[in-house]
Design goal:
Blueprint lengths: L3 E6 L3 H13 L3 E7 L7 H4 L6 E3 L2 H6 L5 E4 L6 H10 L3 E4 L10 H11 L3 E3 L7 H11 L6 E11 L17 H17 L2 E12 L2 E12 L8 E9 L1 E12 L2 E6 L11 E5 L6 E4 L5 H14 L8 H16 L5
Parallel strand pairs: 1-2, 1-4, 2-3, 4-5, 5-6, 7-10
Antiparallel strand pairs: 7-11, 8-9, 9-10, 11-12, 12-13, 13-14
Length: 331
């Protein structure tokens, strides 16, 4: 199978520590080029990819005929523009989440994807992790009966890092764009449900949300009242680290630990708890969901395999985020 040559736009810390390494390690992928105007920032990448080609700027990566796919880890407010530029340059593109700051902005990327026939996707890595695939399968097969409630919590504390792009309004910062995409999108992906009613309470600092509490009702399209359940989520950039997701059904519950930063925050585990039955725990040590994401992208290119998180999926989560902001009661 032909190897996919990847280019990375920018020497972001996340790219350096996770995604560039995943591209380098993935089967069928090669970390080929990096675009940065500061050559010194490329040196940590060369420590694990010594043959890396460094271009002076992002556009130079897009102009390189050897680059087939581009990964975009830029600040949130730049995602749409560079996704479109990549597609216009004839490159497949994987864009960090959130791919846009409003759902309507994603339509332009969908249009460019369809016009070019190229693959464009949001880097929503959790859907590639077997922990999440297992949760989805268990819910679909009725292991806990009809879902009655789902809740998610994701928090960390970065108040000491005022210059961080997540703490800046001008770069599209905030806990909801950064981690709300996980708290909300994961529930949608596992259950196939969309929000019916939402209410939110959001606390802001310097124009960005640092705490958000969301409640509401969700429903599977076409399933009627039997497909409805209640939903709650909390995200924060001002609380000690926490990650947990729970699906509660008529006959039991699924609790997921380490659900978002699997193996980094905690070991990914799935607990299936049902009254009258032994507790069932599944563990997923050593799984690199970023590497799996790159390999899934490559399979979609080379083998026409279905990619598990489409732009339409990403738009659904962003539409939910838009509604959450619109229903805000500040605190």
């Amino acid at each position: 199978m032909k190897v996919v040559n990847w280019g990375v736009l920018g020497a972001a810390k996340f790219a350096r520590d996770h995604m560039a390494r995943a591209i380098h390690a993935a089967d069928g992928a090669r970390l080929y080029a990096l675009g940065t105007s500061d050559a010194a920032r490329a040196e940590p990448f060369r420590s694990f990819a010594p043959d890396l080609i460094v271009h002076d700027g992002y556009q130079a990566v897009l102009d390189d005929p050897e680059v087939e796919a581009v990964y975009v880890p830029l600040p949130n407010h730049l995602h749409v523009d560079w996704a479109l530029k990549a597609l216009e340059a004839g490159k497949h593109v994987l864009v960090e989440k959130p791919i846009a700051l409003e759902a309507s902005q994603i339509d332009a990327i969908i249009g460019a994807r369809d016009a070019t026939g190229l693959l464009a996707a949001e880097a929503y890595m959790i859907v590639h992790h077997p922990q999440w695939q297992r949760a989805r399968a268990l819910v679909a097969e009725g292991a806990i009966g009809r879902v009655l409630h789902a809740d998610a919590a994701f928090s960390y504390d970065n108040r000491a890092d005022g210059g961080n792009i997540r703490n800046r309004a001008d770069t599209g910062g905030g806990s909801i764009p950064d981690i709300g995409v996980y708290a909300y999108g994961s529930i949608r992906w596992v259950t196939g449900a969309e929000p019916l009613r939402l209410a939110s309470r959001i606390r802001r600092e310097n124009g960005v949300d640092v705490f958000a509490q969301v409640m509401g009702d969700m429903a599977r399209p076409g399933a009627g009242p039997e497909g409805e359940f209640t939903f709650a989520a909390m995200t924060s950039m001002r609380l000690p680290p926490r990650q947990e997701v729970v699906f509660q059904g008529e006959r039991g519950l699924i609790r997921m630990t380490g659900p978002f930063n699997a193996g980094l925050f905690a070991e990914a585990q799935l607990h299936l708890l049902r009254p009258g039955q032994p507790d069932h725990v599944e563990r997923f040590p050593g799984v690199n969901q970023y590497k799996l994401q790159v390999e899934a992208f490559g399979r979609s290119l080379r083998q026409r395999a279905a990619y598990p998180w489409t732009l339409e999926d990403a738009k659904g989560t962003q539409a939910m985020i838009d509604r959450i902001f619109a229903s805000d009661r500040p605190i």
